Amino acid sequence: PFVVCEPCINCKFTDCVDVCPVDCFREGENFLVIDPEECIDCGACVPACPVEAIFPEDEVPEEWEEYTDLNARLCTEWPMIDAQQEPMDCADEYQSVSAKRSLLSETPAP
What we know:
By secondary structure, this protein is of the alpha+beta class.
């Protein structure tokens, strides 16, 4: 499966959701995750992500390895998102920020 990593935090561009053929994305307050049980490894989401936050599970950068488990855990708690939405209001400000892990909210999308 594919894994959403740190660059998505406080951006939540949903271009990836729009191209996903199986609705495997789940939505949190300021982050998206992929349900590894639903993902069919098609890779359509990777080029669609404007912040390059999505990686195949076996290619997740070492600094973001925790996101594999984080995606698997949060996908069981967060609602499915199956349509593109506007990015977060702060997306432009945060899309180039690094080291955003402390900003991740584990609250489901409203």
